[in-house]
Structure formats: C-alpha cells, structure tokens
Amino acid sequence: MPKSPVVLHVDDDGDIREIVQMALELVGGLTVVQCATGKEAVEIVSDTKPDLFLLDVMMPDMDGVETLMGLRGVPGFENTPAFFMTAKAQNEDLRDLLDLGAIAIIPKPFDATTISDELMAMYNRAMENAAGQA
C-alpha cells in the first residue's frame, strides 16, 4: 500500500489547524505536520519532508506568499505542490496566488468532511500533469 502524502500545513489560527488536522488525518488518512508560522515551516521542512504545502494566506510576520518563497528556497522543495487557504477570495488575489505557482486555492470556510478528498484530487492531478511533462 503506498504511503499517504505528508502535508505541511501552516496557519496562525489554532482552531483552523485543529480542524484541518482532524479532517486530513481522521477523514482522509493523510499525515499532517503543522506550524503556526512561516518561519517555523521553513525551519522544519527539511526534517519533515512534506509532499505538499497547505498554506494560509493571511498570517502575521510571514504571510503565505512569503512562506511559500521561503519554502521554495530550501533545496529539494523548489517544486513541491502548494495549495493556499484563504477567506480573502477576490479574483485578482486568487490569480496572483496561482501565478506564484499554487496548484489551487481552498476558500475558507471549507467543508471539513470533503477537504481531504478535494485536496488529494487536486494533488493527484498536479502529480499526473508533472509526470506527463517530464
């Protein structure tokens, strides 16, 4: 049986982290590593070796974009699939995130019963596309 992908989830809101962890681990069977800050994520990414990033957009200190840039600067994670979560779902903002290389944007509030299936479907499509381009 293939191992489940490891998700590096970064969100400054403890309640959101708890809900996402339960949704992805208990409902989706995924492995989740969580951080409250972008700085912490950049510090642990090499040790945790995630298969994908799930990043909040609006965080203090390092926002989601800065966090993604920091993670992309760590050798071995330049092309790790990234997903953003945000309550700020303006079309222009979404385009900017996709232009930065995000696979998709998950709007908040999200459905905890379906987020793991949605995330995995998007992740699998991204991996198939990457394999087709190789």
Structural class computed from helices and strand pairing: alpha/beta
Radius of gyration: 14 Å
**Record field, number of beta strands:** 5
What's the main sheet like? Answer: 5 strands, parallel
Number of domains: 1
CATH level-3 fold name: Rossmann fold
Order of H and E elements: EHEHEHEHEH
What do these coordinates show?
The protein is an alpha/beta fold and 134 residues long. It has 5 helices and 5 strands. The chain has a single domain, classed as Response regulator (Rossmann fold, 3-Layer(aba) Sandwich), CATH 3.40.50.2300. A 5-stranded parallel beta sheet has the order 2-1-3-4-5, sandwiched between helices. Helix 3 links the parallel strand 3 and strand 4. The longest helix has 19 residues.
Annotate the secondary structure layout.
Layout lengths: L5 E5 L3 H14 L3 E5 L2 H11 L3 E5 L7 H9 L9 E5 L4 H9 L4 E4 L7 H19 L1
Parallel strand pairs: 1-2, 1-3, 3-4, 4-5
Features:
single chain; 134 residues; alpha/beta; Rossmann fold; five-stranded parallel beta sheet; 5 helices; 18% strand; globular
Quick structural summary:
With 134 residues, the chain is of the alpha/beta class. It is 46% helix and 18% strand.
